[in-house]
Design brief:
Layout (H helix, E strand, L loop, with lengths): L7 E8 L3 E10 L4 E7 L7 H11 L3 E11 L7 E3 L1 H17 L8 H6 L4 E3 L4 H48 L2 H20 L5 H15 L2 H20 L4 H21 L3 H21 L4
Length: 289
């Protein structure tokens, strides 16, 4: 399944003769689906069906939808006379002239200037709805494609960061025995200097306690497991944002524990690098649907 970013944009318009119907969609990240509409008053009746179509196609994000009509400057307006109104004017003129013999008759220019006699070509609500739905299909396809392209880019970034984290985690495991050996030597020397009669068993006990405290095998195993889950979720696709956000929290928890158990500058540096990579991944995850 395709991974979608919550950031996207698309805008198209259709030529309806005297006017052009324009539709624009743009979105940014959000915890839930938040649809905001701005549309011309004569198109307000289309808002609810448009909302239903958008809600069925988009999972998360703050989406702004702008729908409006604009005059088509390239189109020549088709004017048609209101014959029924012209006939009424003719009848009224006859009645007036029967009483006022000296009144001037109506000219053709005066009749054409009469309010309502000339009307531009009207677009029926049924046609507006059909044209709007067809336009929405095209805009929505482009909009989802833009979110898919951005989602693929973000997924590549996450995979690259996960690979770097695996490399850093792999560096830690061989450092732990070295740290224990170094501590063993220093502790044994100090204890022998302080207490000449101290037996080797007490030294081994102290070393065992230290080794238990700095043992990070469990943290390293969990880090690897979480990174594998990141890769699995990205491969599966679909709506992955919330799941990846939870995994980022778990990765950060293990990186913190690794840093707290560190007994060497090298391990601390790796833990800090892991936390930096996790934060970079979290920033990208926030934009995924």
């Amino acid at each position: 399944m395709t991974i979608h970013s919550m950031t996207g944009y698309a805008a198209l318009d259709r030529d309806l003769g005297p006017v052009r119907l324009a539709l624009e969609l743009k979105s940014v990240n959000g915890r839930f689906l938040d649809l905001n509409f701005r549309c011309a008053e004569e198109l307000r009746f289309l808002e609810m069906p448009l909302r239903e179509k958008l809600a069925a196609a988009i999972g998360r994000g703050k989406v702004d939808c702008r729908l409006y009509l604009q005059p088509n400057s390239a189109a020549t307006p088709q004017l048609t006379p209101n014959i029924a109104l012209v006939q009424q004017l003719a009848g009224l003129e006859t009645e007036v002239l029967s009483v006022m013999f000296n009144a001037a008759p109506l000219s053709v220019a005066e009749v054409l200037r009469w309010p309502g006699v000339l009307a531009s070509e009207a677009i029926s609500p049924e046609r507006l709805q059909a044209e709007c739905f067809a336009l929405l299909d095209s805009v929505l396809a482009e909009f989802l494609a833009s979110r898919a392209r951005e989602g693929a880019r973000l997924a590549d970034v996450l995979r690259e960061r996960a690979t770097r984290m695996r490399t850093e985690v792999a560096k830690v495991e061989p450092m732990v025995p070295v740290a224990i050996a170094d501590y063993t030597e220093r502790l044994a020397t100090k204890l022998r200097e302080a207490v000449a009669a101290l037996d080797e068993e007490r030294i081994r006990q102290e070393i065992s306690v230290f080794a238990a405290k700095i043992d990070v095998a469990e943290e390293l195993a969990r880090l690897v497991t979480h990174l594998s889950e990141v890769e699995r979720v990205l491969s599966k696709g679909g709506a992955v944002g919330k799941r990846l956000d939870f995994i980022m929290q778990e990765l950060n928890r293990e990186a913190n524990t690794l840093a707290s158990k560190s007994v060497s500058a090298a391990v601390t540096a790796i833990a800090l690098e892991l936390k930096l990579l996790i934060e970079q991944m979290r920033e990208q995850v926030q934009n995924l649907e």
